Amino acid sequence: MSGQQFRRNIIVTGGAGFIGSHLVRLLVKKYPEYRIINVDALTYAGNLANLKDIENCDNYVFRKADVTDFEAMRRIMEDFHVDAIIHLAAESHVDRSIKDPFIFAKTNVLGTLTLLQASKEYWESLPEKFDGKLYYQVSTDEVYGALELTRPDGEAPYGDEFFTEQTRYAPHSPYSASKASADHFVRAFHDTYGLPVIISNCSNNYGPYQFPEKLIPLFINNIRHGKPLPVYGKGENVRDWLYVEDHARAIDLIFHRGTPGETYNIGGFNEWKNIDIVRLVIRTVDRMLGRKEGESERLITFVTDRAGHDLRYAIDSSKLHDELGWEPSLQFEEGIEKTVRWYLDNQEWLDNVTSGEYENYYARFYGDSDTH
Ligand code: NAD
Ligand code: TYD
Prior knowledge:
- With 372 residues, the chain is α/β, with parallel strands linked by helices.
- It is built from twelve helices and twelve strands.
- The strands form three sheets. A seven-stranded parallel β-sheet has the order 3-2-1-4-5-6-10, sandwiched between helices.
- Helices cover 40% and strands 16% of the residues.
- α1 packs across α7 and α4 (102-124) packs parallel to α5.
- The structure holds nicotinamide-adenine-dinucleotide (NAD) and thymidine-5'-diphosphate.
């Protein structure tokens, strides 16, 4: 299979997932001269329907494969003359990692190591070796651990401390521990073998095509169906939210203009307490469904807190802004408006992904709620 007619041949792993599908769409449309090879195992979180609009593009290829399968990864790299990898495939939900940490170690740690080793071996076998090659690791701010909430009742920001690229890794959940471990392997391959790598650590994403086990899509769906909204603890945890297309734009920019060996934080300086987001989403859904605004507040159900629940995440993304000129394009309220509209207009997508198996998992997990 020749890749000569394409200027670059880029693997995106996890391209059928939430962020991956936005990134694949952006790259396929913006760079017809690149071939984008979407490598995804299609777990419960992967859905090719996320890419219906671009699946027939000449510069798009899909390969169903597991990133922990070394032979498969090597073969795809050789078949498509791959010169860059953007690695997103992962188990990504903290609550699942608390229930079943092993798959997180396998997919997130071994999967990353497999891609690193396969790309190193493949690129070393070429005459130009690592020249013009790039391994890009998509990571999370959760690797940095948690920040204090020093102004719990004030306006955002909720404290003076932020995660910078210099913050020491201190993960708490099995999910963040697996992502941190993967990032360490990425750095080790850079420092030990000279593999050209870049890591970016992004804050919480939201937007269309996010699997409805994460806060925002889960709650939109539950409000629509009049189901309880399980708020962990008192809803006081703070997250820093970014619209998914802004994350995809940042990855595109860093991929092209970032410096190999460097790390970039991505975030919108947009901190919100969970309970405030819940109220905003309730107001938005109620209004769009023609209900009395705030009517669905009765669905708020405070449940037992998540074990080891990180209090606050807040990203300092000034390096990305100052060095590469990136900034988020959407205000949060605008992004929530777009997101709620999308979920309400795409009920079929939601029905398809909320299979019986997922519903059962969900029921088991939230069995201990205490309704207020
Ligand atoms: P997601 O769960 O929606 O999608 C993950 C994708 O990876 C799915 O398509 C799934 O099929 C695929 N996958 C899982 N295991 C695989 C395997 N063994 N082999 C091949 N494919 C496999 O995740 P997401 O929210 O889109 O996150 C993507 C990446 O971005 C992850 O690495 C995550 O850690 C990171 N990240 C996510 C957020 C966020 O808020 N969602 C924030 C920062 C960073
Ligand atoms: P989530 O979307 O799972 O992202 P993360 O854990 O990676 O930050 O959760 C966002 C926040 O919302 C987090 O503080 C946990 C909280 N949360 C709830 O209160 N109830 C829920 O049902 C879910 C899924 C999350």
